[in-house]
Amino acid sequence: MQESILNVMAVVCHPADAIDGAGGTLALHADRGDLVTVVVCTHGVDTHDLERNDVFRYGVQRETLDHGTALGRKEREVAEGLRLLGVEDVRFLRFPDELLMVTRDLIEAIAEVMAEVQPHLLVLHNPTEDLGLADVGHADSAIAALKARYLANTPRFLEGKPVPGRQFPAQIFFMCMNGKTTVLTAAGERWGNVLVDITPVVERKVRAMDCLTSQYYPGDLARKCIEDVNGRMGLHWRLPYAEAFQSFHPDIHSHLPVNPYLLDRAATPAAEELARMKITVTDVPFDS
Ligand SMILES: [Zn+2]
Question: What's the domain count of the chain?
Answer without folding.
Answer: 1
